[in-house]
Amino acid sequence: MASQIHILQTTFLSSIPKTKSSKLEPHSRKLTITASKFSNPFIAGRKLRAAVIGGGPAGSSAAEALATGGVETFLFERNPPSVAKPCGGAIPLCMLEEFSIPHELIDRQVTQMRIFSPSNIAVDFGKTLKSHEFIAMLRREVLDSFLRSRAQYKGANLITGLVTNLEVPVSQNEPYIIHYTANGSLRRTLAVDVVIGADGANSRVAKSINAGNYTCAIAFQERIKLPDEKMEYYENLAEMYVGNDVSPDFYAWVFPKSDHVAVGTGTVRLKQDIKVYQRGIRERVKPKIDGGKVIKVEAHPIPEHPRPIRVRGRVALVGDAAGYVTKCSGEGIYFAAKSGRMCGKAVVKASEGGERMINEGDLRREYLKEWDAKYINTFKVLDLLQRVFYGSNASREALVELCEDKYVQRMTFESYLYKKLAQGNRWDDVKMVMNTIGSLVKCNVVARKMESLVL
Ligand SMILES: Cc1cc2nc3c(=O)[nH]c(=O)nc-3n(C[C@H](O)[C@H](O)[C@H](O)COP(=O)(O)OP(=O)(O)OC[C@H]3O[C@@H](n4cnc5c(N)ncnc54)[C@H](O)[C@@H]3O)c2cc1C
């Protein structure tokens, strides 16, 4: 695996112009800062120095933007390239182009999506995809390692080490001190002007700045190697399952990976029962995975909403650390990379290419305001849809029934693949709303009738 990642990196990164990275000064606590609340003074004799904590999609994208824009950048990642973050690895089409991700990194191009209702009614959800459209499935170790290496090529100093503490200054004229362990046990510190917290759902940076908590779902996933003939079935097919047996408030999935499938589920409300729901999804897909061998079991929190505080002082949170995962789909990779890049660019802009000190107001204006203007509504709509459709078996039946509709399919895929609100037709929109209400009412009536028959 490590050698495969190395080949991918050298093949695709050699074409990218390399920027010279600066020499790291370990144990550095010295950094002269002249900051003021109202002005951004020039920095004499050096460049603005930023630390990005976490080398996932959010951190690497932030570091790449910072280094490209002239900021002295240090990217901290605790894991070596071969370690993967637990994840389904599905990304939308637009991310490949926007983040120049080589197609060779993709394991599977999913063109068929099948959704199963609580009563196991299956609906094919990819009928309206055009011939060039697909959902890209990648291994996170491959994607993360590529993005990290690219940030390094662009001039970021990559430090493989665990950040153990972020020392927050008491006055505006002092630096932030990063405490970290490198090479297993060497304790070191680094003084920086700006910190970007991209250290995921259990963010240490968020804790250090008292950014507050968010509700988390727990996601559980088993990687199962299937016999060849069974793997063929999942060649370009991803499956979603809804129902009280697989999750009280989310969906369960079977996603095809390079040489295995990822079978998993998630829940917010009943985290202690996650293994019960995992047994539920395994039961539903039993004939399709029989004879398979579990090669990995993993679990990880997924944030449910943005943190109360995402910027404090000269520290900003991005990706999962900030809470940017959409409800309904549990999608976070694209939003992590996007927020990282947006925040990195914001620092570059406010510091005029690393020449000036920045302050909290800059981060709020150039990053937070931009982010909220662009995405807050998307997050709100998906939150609402999750509440409406994942709440009971009756509404899940209605959801699957609606998925049959070609207009619903086109609107959903266009919004997912291209991350912009699909241009609909007013009459079809009205029909869609009526159908939604109709399906919800019908399925609820049927559910109540079933209940009265059972009682
Ligand atoms: C089971 C599961 C399935 C998912 N499936 C999908 C999917 O198919 N598609 C999708 O879009 N999203 C999916 N998500 C969500 C997605 O994984 C996250 O939203 C995404 O990884 C967020 O990226 P990030 O860079 O913000 O954080 P992360 O990917 O969590 O990266 C954080 C990085 O910081 C490092 N780090 C943490 N603490 C420290 C420290 N103290 N010092 C140094 N380094 C540190 C970590 O090692 C890690 O590399 C899934 C999540 C789960 C749990």
- CATH level-3 fold name of the largest domain: FAD/NAD(P)-binding domain
Q: Kindly estimate the percentage of residues that lie in beta strands according to DSSP.
A: 15-25%
Q: What count of domains describes the coordinates? A: 3
Indicate the CATH class of the largest domain.
Alpha Beta
Fraction in helix: 25-40%
Helical run tally: 14
Tell me the number of strands: 18
Write down the Rg: 23 Å
Distance between the termini: 56 Å
Secondary-structure-based class equals alpha/beta
Mean pLDDT over the full residue set = 88
Shape: globular
CATH superfamily of the largest domain: FAD/NAD(P)-binding domain
Ligand roster: flavin-adenine dinucleotide
Structure explained in plain terms:
Helices cover 38% and strands 22% of the residues. With 455 residues, it is α/β, with parallel strands linked by helices. It has three domains: 2-85 and 140-213 and 309-378, FAD/NAD(P)-binding domain, CATH 3.50.50; 216-303, D-Amino Acid Oxidase, subunit A, domain 2 (D-Amino Acid Oxidase, Chain A, domain 2, 2-Layer Sandwich), CATH 3.30.9.10; 389-454. The strands form three sheets. Strands 10-9-8-2-1-11-18-17 form an eight-stranded mixed beta sheet. Strand 9 and strand 10 form a beta hairpin. Helix 1 (2-13) packs across helix 4 and helix 12 (393-403) runs antiparallel to helix 14 (426-454). The longest helix has 30 residues, at 360-389. The radius of gyration is 23 Å and the shape is globular. Residues 53-59, 76-79, 85-91, 162-163, 198-200, 204, 219, 221, 264, 300, 302, 319-321, 325, 330-334, 336 line the site of flavin-adenine dinucleotide. Flavin-adenine dinucleotide (FAD) binds at residues 53-59, 76-79, 85-91, 162-163, 198-200, 204, 219, 221, 264, 300, 302, 319-321, 325, 330-334, 336.
